[in-house]
Amino acid sequence: MKLFLAVFCLLSVVASAYCSLIASGASLRSTTALNIRSGPCTSNGIVTSVGAGTTLKFTGSVQSGCGYTWYGVEVNGKRGHAASNFLTEVNNGGGGGSNTGASISVDALRRIMPNLSSSKANQYIGYLNSALAAGNINTCCRKSAFLAQLAHESGDLNWFVEFASGAAYEGRKDLGNIYPGDGVRYKGRGPIQITGRANYRAAGQALGIDLENNPTRAADPDVGFRTAVWFWNSRSLNQYADQCNQSGFDITTRRINGGYNGKADRDAHWTRGKSVLGC
Ligand SMILES: *[C@@H]1O[C@H](CO)[C@@H](O)[C@H](O)[C@H]1NC(C)=O
Ligand SMILES: *[C@@H]1O[C@H](CO)[C@@H](O)[C@H](O)[C@H]1NC(C)=O
Fold it and tell me: Start and end of every SH3b domain (predicted)?
């Protein structure tokens, strides 16, 4: 099929859009302000609009309509179709993906988190990048702070369930643990280790998933990265990450941890992230 497409591409200008050979899940960038439509034609309704330079995820769909070729795209948690003329593929070489906007490449992620295996990084990268985009974690300063906190909380994305039983949280009304067993039921899960009935309920409501009744879902990567971003934004942490200095980063540590547990490890990941991503 790829060979067929390649030959077809060389012979046909009209068909060039079918020749993108872009992998599903790849990052695209808008070259101008752009409307994302519900179907592959300008007569379809606008699902959302993006500015120039926005990173979008390619869903794998390619369709023609109204004189354009339309790529299926996902951005800000919304899916639709965008005219391919106004999209460029973000450089996909050397470790998969780019580090612009809300995306991070597997290569950069693994340099920031040396204990993350290549297979896990490749398994998580799509969930992570979708969550970063949905949460506007889209600058070097934001990504390096966010990833440093995740790295510490999950041991470089290796542990999505807290080691302790959770019994220590029993009866913690400040966490919404008001029923017997809540401490264990709502122990830390996901890459940022959300904890407590109140957080599971609020995250679930925000994401449209009933986490209060299905708490273990928070440990699955498709949900976990979204709960991490939900937590980050529910505490308005982008604004402290934007300071891009130690005092701003310390505030993110305190809001996540309640204190400065693991400060040296968080700081080391943060410093490495800024250096890898260039800020
Ligand atoms: C990686 O794991 C090893 C062994 O658990 C640990 O000693 C080391 O500190 C970890 N490295 C990072 C960067 O977290
Ligand atoms: C950190 O950055 C913020 C925002 O630019 C600034 O107001 C604050 O003074 C800085 N803190 C230090 C210790 O430099």
Answer: 23-91
172 and 249 belong to one structural domain: yes
pLDDT tens track for 9-45: 334 333 334 444 466 677 777 767 889 999 999 999 9
Helices (H), 79-196: 106-112, 118-134, 140-154, 182-185
- Of 33, 58, 72, the C-alpha closest to 133 is 58
**CA distances, 140 to each of 56, 87, 137, 171, 187 (Å):** 17, 22, 9, 39, 31
Domain closes at, from 36, 63, 89:
89
Q: What is the pLDDT of residues 197-234, one digit of tens each?
A: 999 999 999 999 999 999 999 999 999 999 999 999 99
Residue 133 Cα, ligand 1 centroid: separation in angstroms? Answer: 28
The pTM of the whole model exceeds 0.70:
no
**Total structural domains within the chain:** 2
Which ligand gives the minimal distance to the CA of 251?
Answer: 2
**Domain hosting residue 165, numbered range:** 97-279
Q: How far apart are CA 189 and CA 45, in angstroms?
A: 38
Q: CB under 6 Å to ligand 1: residues?
A: 114-115, 156
On whether both 13 and 129 belong to a single domain, the answer is no
For ligand 2, whether the C-beta of 205 sits within 6 Å is: no
C-alpha of residue 259 to centroid of ligand 1, in Å: 22
Cβ-proximal residues to 194 (8 Å cutoff; 6+ apart), any chain: 188, 200, 203, 218, 227, 228, 231
Say how many CA atoms lie within 13 Å of 209 toward its Cβ.
18
| Lookup: tokens for 230 | 């939900």
- 49 and 183 assigned to the same domain: no
